[in-house]
Design a protein that fits this description.
This protein is mainly alpha-helical. It has eight helices and nine strands. The chain has helices spanning 4-18, 47-52, 54-73, 110-118, 167-194, 211-223, 257-272, 280-309, and strands at residues 31-33, 38-40, 78-80, 85-87, 128-131, 136-139, 340-341, 348-350, 355-358. It is flat.
Length: 363
């Protein structure tokens, strides 16, 4: 008979056969990048196992590499956050390309900076609140919220308030002012973080308003009347506000038929006149410029010819050698062609213009 120990041992062996061990041995230690949760296995594949059962072999390799990654993660320091064990991953070692840059950290608002300085911690509020009138739990915000003031059909007038004042309108106005104030604070926080001016429509409150801002405030105050400032009197020596848009004026749909006819005829004339209009002044100026350019180019050519002639008289062509009164060659009073020289070098001589013969004693 099998004892209890044998039964327990067989059970543990069967369970151990189902689950593999967490210890993995590799010939070459894989490279682990915990920041990117990446494992690089450089061990060569076993071709026999790969050809035998490709899918099972690749799954076993993936399982072993994942086990090595988890073993390295569990060695990092852990902390518990809301009943969950978390690990802070180290810096990455493998550079991976990104489509977009890493998002920058969100800038802190003025209140968040103050709370961090004073050590004020934010307390999380519950979503549901008890409604005394309905005697039920309702959402704190949104549709069918608890203690909804907009559902009041009557409002008690305070003792120090004007009895003729509309309390419903006063409540709505106060809510609009709160919303506008929150929006302005949000814009100021953005402008403070980006070091830019506060965007807004109209006039935003500033500590030291400039001359232009005061003028803009005066212009907006005048336009705030029922007649949009049409009957508001101007102050003495008051100037028109700058950078203020003008109201567009449109022609009436039904009005002066004669003027409308002229406008339509002008449009037809422009469409029919395909030839461009000639600017006579521009054409005359262009012709005068071309004439001046031609005259200046002729003057330059004449001056260039005079400079070339200053180098000396042109050489005469003649026959003979260097004899005096010889024709041709470089002799004086020579003629182009054949001739006889009074005194020459003797023999035959060739000139620039032709051939010449000379008789005489040589030098």
């Amino acid at each position: 008979m099998a004892t209890v120990e044998d039964v327990l041992e067989s059970v543990t062996q069967s369970q151990a056969s189902k689950y593999k061990t967490i210890e993995v041995q590799k010939d070459i230690e894989p490279q682990l990048d915990l920041g990117n949760l990446l494992t690089v296995d450089q061990n060569p594949l076993e071709l026999k196992k790969l050809r035998g059962d490709k899918e099972a072999y690749l799954k076993s390799q993936a399982r072993d590499n994942t086990q090595l990654l988890f073993n390295a993660i569990w060695k990092l320091p852990t902390e518990r956050v809301e009943e969950a064990i978390c690990v802070k991953l180290p810096e990455t070692t493998t550079v991976l390309p990104r489509e977009k840059p890493i998002p920058k950290a969100k800038l802190q608002t003025k209140w968040e900076q103050y709370a961090l300085l004073k050590g004020i911690q934010k307390r999380k509020k519950g979503r549901m609140v008890w409604d005394e009138e309905a005697k039920d739990w309702k959402p704190r915000w949104g549709y069918k919220r608890a203690n909804d003031e907009t559902k009041d059909w009557v409002i008690e007038v305070p003792g120090n308030a004007d009895p003729n004042e509309d309390q419903f309108e006063k409540r709505m106005k106060a809510k609009k002012e709160r919303v506008a104030k929150n929006e302005l604070q949000r814009l100021r926080n953005i402008a403070r973080g980006t070091k830019s001016k506060v965007p807004g429509v109209g006039l935003t409150p500033t500590e030291k308003p400039s001359k232009e801002e005061v003028g803009l405030a005066l212009h907006l105050a005048k336009k705030s009347t029922a007649s949009l400032g049409k009957f508001t009197e101007k102050l003495p020596k008051e100037k028109e506000a700058k950078h203020v848009g003008k109201k567009r004026k449109f022609e009436p749909a039904i009005g002066d038929f004669k003027k409308e006819k002229e406008q339509q005829l002008n449009i037809i004339n422009v469409m029919e006149n395909k030839k461009p209009k000639m600017d006579i002044t521009k054409a005359v100026n262009r012709v005068m410029t071309e004439v001046d350019q031609e005259a200046s180019s002729d003057d330059r050519r004449k001056r260039a010819g005079k400079v070339k002639n200053r180098r000396g008289p042109p050489r005469k062509k003649g026959s003979g050698g260097f004899g005096k009164k010889g024709s041709g060659g470089f002799g004086k009073k020579g003629k182009v062609g054949k001739g006889k020289g009074a005194k020459g070098m003797g023999g035959k001589g060739k000139g620039m213009g032709g051939k010449g013969k000379g008789k005489g004693k040589g030098r």
